[in-house]
Amino acid sequence: MKYNNDTILKLFESALLQFQTPEEPKLLYDPIVYSMSGGGKRLRPVLLLLTVDAFGGDVEEALPAGMAVEVFHNFTLLHDDIMDNASMRRGMPSVYAKWGGNVALLSGDTMLIIAYKYLARVPSTQLHRILNIFSDMATEVCEGQQYDMDFESVDMVFAEDYIKMIEYKTSALLSGSAMIGATLAGASEDDIRKMYRFATELGLAFQLQDDMLDSYGDEKLGKKIGGDILEGKQTYLMVQAMSRASEEEREVLRTTHRRTDISDDEKIAIVKALYDKFDVRHSTEQQIKIRFERALAVLDTLSIAGERTSQLEEFARNLMGRKK
Amino acid sequence: MKYNNDTILKLFESALLQFQTPEEPKLLYDPIVYSMSGGGKRLRPVLLLLTVDAFGGDVEEALPAGMAVEVFHNFTLLHDDIMDNASMRRGMPSVYAKWGGNVALLSGDTMLIIAYKYLARVPSTQLHRILNIFSDMATEVCEGQQYDMDFESVDMVFAEDYIKMIEYKTSALLSGSAMIGATLAGASEDDIRKMYRFATELGLAFQLQDDMLDSYGDEKLGKKIGGDILEGKQTYLMVQAMSRASEEEREVLRTTHRRTDISDDEKIAIVKALYDKFDVRHSTEQQIKIRFERALAVLDTLSIAGERTSQLEEFARNLMGRKK
Fold first, then answer.
1. Of B176, B184, B180, which is closest to residue B203 (Cα–Cα)?
2. Given CB 3.0 to 4.6 Å as the disulfide criterion, which of A297, B11, B146, B168 pairs with A25?
3. How far apart are CA A66 and CA A70, in angstroms?
4. Cα A204 from Cα A195, distance rounded (Å)
């Protein structure tokens, strides 16, 4: 173990400073540089590199694979912002808002190709395997995005379908990163599978917590309450509430965000009153707890010595904003 | 040599019948199946496979690489149709028109990933090399598309910039296919480079001819005259005419397609009168002839026996609609 969460992030950030594109055509490459330098927590490459380190692999050699997952993640943001008509990203104008849809589309395409270019730099003996993990992961992310869009035209989403959607849309990129890291470090098939499970459960816990904080977060922490409610987005809270509501209450849950006769605060209050009635906060917290504990429990079953997993555990706690 | 142009197309078409995607999510995969079964001449896989055969490689083993370039080509069509707001493709509604921009975007992304999945099936020893050729080719296609869009907001396009654009946007996918084919067959570096030049020149000849037929084609052959003129598209004819026109004539060339006081036929007549005045037909035909002859000449310099290149020559003649 040569790194911890902080030093591995620093290592990756310094590798990111080397990120370069051709200068021309400017409208293709400027948005890519803008996107890659827009900050973010670099969760996926950090998880990938921490996994490499935990299994005794060569972290520096794994940097291109880390770049691949980070560039891929940013590609999805460019295209998601087109589909969601989103003008802001990380507190800055989105590429879509700044340059328009065509630029975001084509620059995004190019980023997906650049991700594969980085991937091609993994050792030849592992390339085939890594490529397949990466492409399967990438496909799941697209499928997850489509399921999410499908939900917009569905009367009622079932909890298991919702969980599957976020497993694809959010967890897949984390679990793919963990598997790539373990594979690069030469971990056993069993350990690779376990790292997949660790990151899948962690990703679910993370997304469910994100859902919950939208309604029950602390506004003092800068989190604006009710954004998902106002957008009429499916969340685990909404899915739970719908499953317990009467037909009349379902209609309220479905339509309140579209009302024009009441204020945003009133809309949020109406929906949250139903959330409270069905105590969806509690059942969501239960789910988060179960998923998070499962993730941590997987770490104990890895074939490597316990102290080697400490930074992965810290990664998980940081992600969930939890001290030990 | 086991194949000719016809039998290799049949072989590829039968491989294409095996093309399958998951069933769900339907809005992600139905457009992909629709796009892949929409016909087209399969030029890129045919060139790839003919090249494999010419160099004595295993054509059947190269089928996944052929699928990769065909799926990639169809991915570019889905995204180009969004950017061009194009409702028709190969005489059918485009995916963009049929399902909307978000579906065309996400299904297109998935096709790019599927292309890489096929590519991952080339023999491990060659994977690294093939992957790099493919990604470089894919990047050039995106750059070409951006240069083409850049031209829309430029007062005057220079001939060399126009040629560079079509080299990227049209030739790159042909030259990449030829290089992949030659590489798979174990051709020498020198022969790979020559196949790149063959396909690059052929692609330029093909695109320039396409430009010319828009103004000087035979309407009896089903080609509607003047489409490029009415869209105000840059073509080699336009670029040539602009370079020779007076400032007043340039303004006519720039603005006629936007006029609302005259009919389409009148617009076409005005622009073509200037094309005729500067005899751009002749200079374009010259360019086509030079590029086509250069392409054929490259074939004679390959290290393989002359009769092995006969199907590549026929491919070139077919593409240009020329009998021997």
1. B176
2. B146
3. 6
4. 14
Which residues between 123 and 162 in chain A have a beta carbon less than 8 angstroms from any beta carbon of chain B? 124, 127-128, 131-132, 135, 138-139, 142-143, 145-147, 149-150
What is the identity of the amino acid at A310? S
- A235-280 per-position pLDDT tens digit: 999 999 999 999 999 999 999 999 999 999 999 999 999 999 999 9
- Contact of A48 with A192, CB cutoff 8 Å: no
Alpha-carbon gap, residue B287 to B284, rounded angstroms: 5
**pLDDT per residue as tens digits for the range A297-320:** 999 999 999 999 999 999 999 999
Contact between chains at B127 and A131 (C-beta distance less than 8 A): yes
Q: Which residues pair with B89 in a beta bridge?
A: B92
- Cα–Cα distance, B52 to B66 (Å, whole number): 10
Whether A304 and chain B come into contact, CB under 8 Å, resolves to no
- Contact between residue A151 and residue A234 where contact means Cβ atoms under 8 Å apart: yes
Q: Is A25 on the interface with B (CB under 8 A)?
A: yes
d(C-alpha B144, C-alpha B81), whole Å: 15
Would the CB atoms of B105 and A79 count as touching at under 8 Å?
yes
Q: Rounded to an integer, what distance in angstroms lies between the CA atom of residue A67 and that of residue B34?
A: 34
* Residues B194 and B298 sit within 8 Å (Cβ to Cβ): yes
Name which of A109, A120, A124 is nearest B142 (Cβ-Cβ). Answer: A109
Nearest CA in chain B to A165: B25
Q: What are phi and psi of B187, to 5 degrees?
A: -65, 160
The residue written with tokens 């360019």 in the block is: B287
Residue B92 bridge partners (DSSP): B89
**A119, A131 Cβ separation under 8 angstroms:** yes
Q: Sort out which chain A residues have CB atoms less than 8 A from B102's CB and list them.
A: 82-83, 149
Q: Which of A67, A74, A116 to mutate to test the interface with B (most CBs of B within 10 A)?
A: A116
Put simply, the answer to whether A28 touches B124 (Cβ < 8 Å) is no
From B27, B117, B143, residue closest to A28, measured CB to CB: B143
Decide if A27 and B138 are in contact by the 8 Å CB cutoff.
Answer: no
Using CB atoms, which residue from A110, A135, A146 is nearest to B28? A146
Successive 10-residue mean pLDDT values, chain B, 324 residues: 95 96 97 94 98 98 98 98 94 96 98 98 96 98 97 93 98 98 98 98 97 88 82 95 97 96 96 97 96 98 95 97 74
State the DSSP H helix or E strand holding residue A170, giving kind and residue range, or none if neither: none
Give exposure, B250-270, as e/b (b: 16+ Cβ within 10 Å): bebbeebbeeeeeeeeebbeb
What does B106-175 look like in DSSP terms, one character per residue?
HHHHHHHHHHHHHHTTS-HHHHHHHHHHHHHHHHHHHHHHHHHHHHTT-S---HHHHHHHHIIIIIHHHH
